[in-house]
């Protein structure tokens, strides 16, 4: 009796579970099964090139020591063998044919002399001459396929655009050698299927779909491996993959008939992009497009801690960097920068010899990002300071840290001009969709407008400009992926935006500079306060791809420090410019002030010149010193007790910003003589000698003891820089009443956190409260 009852009962329970599952997918009842936010795209018409019957059937790929996926040595597959192309007579027109044949929109450049390493096998084409209109490299004029007198030192390489040809469809002309070919599709995506994942930002789980011939298609999971999942997750900004509940996806696949791509995928797991993976079996030929009883491929990716999935309301969570053995510096956005490693308590850089996409990907995954988008060389993201810790790095791609890779401990011949950098794939957080610049002359400038919820709907509005400054502007440019801020504006009457967006929707904004979006900065809640109002007084920004980066030379400070007793009658100009202690006002003219003097050598290690914010017509003339100040406060000098209390201070106006000296091969551009232009050129430095006025701290009232000496450059953030963390320098200082010693001088951020914390004062110049 019990058995007879249990069967219908179990059946009823199963029906109930099925209804629950169906409810979860109810929102997916659209044509073709595409949820909202993923409309079926308009069909692009792409027709395969019609080649003359006698045209050699070839396939192309980009190979070699690549620093991004869309570049490399041009290799040709013909007669069952991969070979290369000689650089003789090659041109940008030939590169255009190669890139178009691979599905890229256009060629960017080409490189001779085996820039991407020497290939192997035959050199299939030599003396290639194309017009740029050919449908295949095989149609260009050449010596004939396989006819060449070149060596592999002449292998040619190309750089293609990031954009793919709309509607591109991969056509395989090598049916018997499909597994020798690389994957060529128009686009790839992770499409969230379960409603619980569709609400998350970023999307971490769903179908893997490829766009081929203008149509999105699923991939059969019969030959899918975890190595494939690792590559896909890396492309979308995730450092790893995990298991998922396969049952619900099988149920969904039965309800919605998938449209499978013709091929399977074969990755080794260390590729930075799926285009470097090989094609697998032809699914259509193998199982009549039914996937042989399998289901569509699903991936579930593990996001880095900074990108944990949150609802739309969770944008306020700021990006928090943690102390690790590796860090990125000098980048404009999250996930890019110069690579620095920690060794023996000191941060140093990596030399770019043998720097590759593989090694860069290890760095990106270690830091919680996905695979590398680009490996950069030649100090492209600014020059570092301190030692060069690693050189000639070779990684397998599966290391947990760049420090586990093989490398040459000797860095002889490497300088900071060869500092390696990376751009990593980061998850799509949707930040760019909630902010815009309006009214500017170009897309890089304008009034800042924010998308907010108002009266149950979304509306655009402005940001109050009270307290708006460089740091806030930096966050805006970062959020919009426009680089660095070049200016922060508190009036925008010259940039008329949409009238409907005039009302202020955000006020009291204060940023630290580490935020990924403006909404993560401190700001007023529902109770806005903005006396000036929005409209013409709203906040605005202008952005730039590059920025300067000022760094003080600590060794010069340490080597030039001394003490001088100077009579008050020789300090009248300095007194007028407030370069002395407040007690100096009571000092008789025939008495002395005790000065701690030193030289400052300030280098511009960034990517653009450092220019004063004020235009020349607004510089302030000082009669006493007979010169102009382009920045009233260029540096702060502070003497601190060992508990961090300020006991003496000084400041330095920019008496003259100029190129005192430059690195070899760089010409001076700025000179103050004859009311000349002021600034510091990239690769040059400005020296303020110890014997000029105000290049000191007045220590007349200081008792003998141990102190911390601190210098902060550009303390008020008047001029945007790519990195403010290295704008301060600290030294230990001992004063016995007769002599003074300066030692252990170092720049901010150059030592480990533990070592830095033993020095009081500023730990990070980005968190000064203004």
Automatic annotation (TrEMBL):
Annotated SRCR domain residues: 60-161, 190-302, 326-425, 435-544
Signal peptide positions on this chain: 1-23
Keyword Transmembrane belongs to the record: no
Physiological role: Mediates the post-translational oxidative deamination of lysine residues on target proteins leading to the formation of deaminated lysine (allysine).
Cofactor or coenzyme needed: Cu cation
Post-translational modification, as annotated: The lysine tyrosylquinone cross-link (LTQ) is generated by condensation of the epsilon-amino group of a lysine with a topaquinone produced by oxidation of tyrosine.
Family according to the record: Belongs to the lysyl oxidase family.
GO molecular function, one term: protein-lysine 6-oxidase activity
One Pfam family linked to the record: SRCR
Alphabetical list of SMART domains matching this protein: SR
Protein name: Lysyl oxidase homolog
Broad class of enzyme this protein falls into: oxidoreductase
Keywords carried by this UniProt record: Basement membrane, Calcium, Chromatin regulator, Chromosome, Copper, Disulfide bond, Endoplasmic reticulum, Extracellular matrix, Glycoprotein, LTQ, Metal-binding, Nucleus, Oxidoreductase, Repeat, Repressor, Secreted, Signal, TPQ, Transcription, Transcription regulation
Biological process per Gene Ontology, one example term: chromatin organization
Disulphide linkage map: 86-150, 99-160, 130-140, 267-277, 395-405, 511-521
GO cellular component: basement membrane; chromosome; endoplasmic reticulum; extracellular space; membrane; nucleus
Compartment(s) where it occurs, according to its Swiss-Prot or TrEMBL record: Chromosome; Endoplasmic reticulum; Nucleus; Secreted, Extracellular space, Extracellular matrix, Basement membrane
Record EC number: 1.4.3.13
Catalytic activity, as annotated: L-lysyl-[protein] + O2 + H2O = (S)-2-amino-6-oxohexanoyl-[protein] + H2O2 + NH4(+)
